[in-house]
Write a structure and sequence with these properties.
This protein is of the alpha/beta class. It has 15 helices and 11 strands. Helix 1 packs across helix 8, helix 3 crosses helix 15 and helix 8 crosses helix 9. It is elongated, with a radius of gyration of 25 Å. The mean pLDDT is 95.
């Protein structure tokens, strides 16, 4: 789909690299520029097998890319990058605005080199606000967006806590990928490149507030913030005799089926549960009774009963066991591959499928600077041609 689209990737950690990984999955040619020494810091995010700097996290979101080492503070390497920009369709960077200006990589400077380029700036914060020049990482964005306050609303523990995921980075990376695709479509229609700003704070805050702005959506507010269902302390996985299970009684007709299945259909005859609206208001006693009843069954027994009753349900699995999921195994979600230096590993496949597109088999994640010589040759060759009389 994106075959022939050349992406120059001057990003690190997760936000930018996840964005460019999604583009590589769609066939784009991605060249990753890394600093001398340690390169992308996410190379060191976990235990490597054979080569230092080849962490599992790095391998997961950098497959199919080329890696070149350039010290952009050195004139020759800076010139090499600018040579690459002449033959680049999409330039993605996540260095802050002032640093980009010092390196001559702000949009105005890059546009002089390549007037049609799509320039995608992955930033912590939008550049027209007071946070414009501040640094941002996933933890910082979880804090600033209010996300770190959500668990307290569920369990009553007053400590602010992060969700145990690089969720802000990944959400922002998804926003970056669709922004690139939209800019490519715009260029195909108009012939014009443009600057695209993708601020992580705004991207993640919009993502979280889709449900959690709640009553503050209206002016004046008609209820507090937060979608009540998501911060309900009783809406948690239900205990079984040997584990936990998720059962969702979301529709009006599902509630009677749940209590019939669990052996207490008369529980819903209480006037507190007479209508769908009343059940929505009085969810706490409903969930507590379900939790009491589910302990009379094994997880496997309940799962079979729920599926037979057309009730959404899944066993709570420890995340360390996810590779054994029979559905993911059947769909080929994990593909076993052999890296030329790191040995056997599991590659997570793209979840999106197209009827009229055969995905390319991507190269393995690159070692630091693996393609430096090749990239320098391409840049210098084009630079020479460009300057020829």
């Amino acid at each position: 789909m994106l075959e022939g689209v050349k992406v120059l990737d001057l990003t690190s950690v997760v936000f930018g690299p996840y964005c460019t990984q999604l583009l590589a999955d769609l066939g784009a040619e991605v060249t990753k520029i890394e600093a001398p020494g340690s390169g992308d810091s996410f190379r060191w995010s976990g235990k490597a097998v054979a080569t230092k700097g080849m962490s599992p996290g790095f391998m997961t979101i950098n497959r199919g890319k080329k890696s070149a080492i350039l010290n952009l503070k050195e004139p020759d390497d800076n010139a090499t990058l600018k040579g690459l920009l002449r033959v680049t369709d999409v330039f993605i960077l996540n260095i802050r605005g002032k640093a980009a200006e010092r390196l001559g990589l702000d949009y105005a400077s890059v546009k002089e080199i390549n007037p049609e380029i799509i320039y995608v700036h992955c930033l912590g914060f939008a550049q027209d606000g007071p946070y414009a020049d501040l640094q941002a990482y996933d933890d910082v964005i979880q804090a600033a967006s209010g996300t770190a306050s959500l668990l307290s609303r569920v369990d009553g523990d007053p400590r602010a806590r992060y969700l145990p995921s690089l969720i802000a980075d990944k959400v922002a990376g998804l926003h970056g990928a669709y922004a690139v695709l939209a800019a490519i479509i715009h260029k195909l229609r108009t012939g014009h490149g443009q600057r695209v700003e993708v601020p992580m704070f705004e991207a993640f805050t919009s993502f979280m507030l889709l449900e959690h702005l709640a009553g503050e959506t209206f002016d004046p507010p008609n209820a507090p913030t937060c979608y009540g269902r998501q911060v309900d302390p009783d809406r948690q996985p239900f205990p079984t005799s040997d584990g936990y299970i998720s059962i969702v009684a979301y529709t009006d007709e599902a509630w009677p089926r749940v209590f019939e299945m669990l052996g207490n259909p008369s529980f819903l005859s209480d006037e507190r549960f007479a209508t769908f609206k009343l059940r929505s208001i009085n969810t706490a006693p409903l969930y507590k009774e379900i939790a009491r009843l589910t302990q009379n069954f094994t997880t496997a027994e309940l799962l079979a009963l729920c599926h037979a009753a057309q009730l959404p349900a899944q066993a709570v699995r420890d995340i360390s066991e996810i590779k054994n999921d029979p559905h993911l195994e059947a769909t080929g979600f994990f593909k076993r591959r052999t890296h030329p230096t790191e040995g056997d590993y599991f590659e997570i496949q793209s979840p999106i499928r197209f009827d009229d597109y055969e995905r390319p088999v991507l190269d393995h994640a690159p070692k630091l600077g693996e393609h430096s010589e090749e990239v320098r040759f391409v840049a210098n060759e084009h630079h020479t041609i460009h300057r020829a009389p």
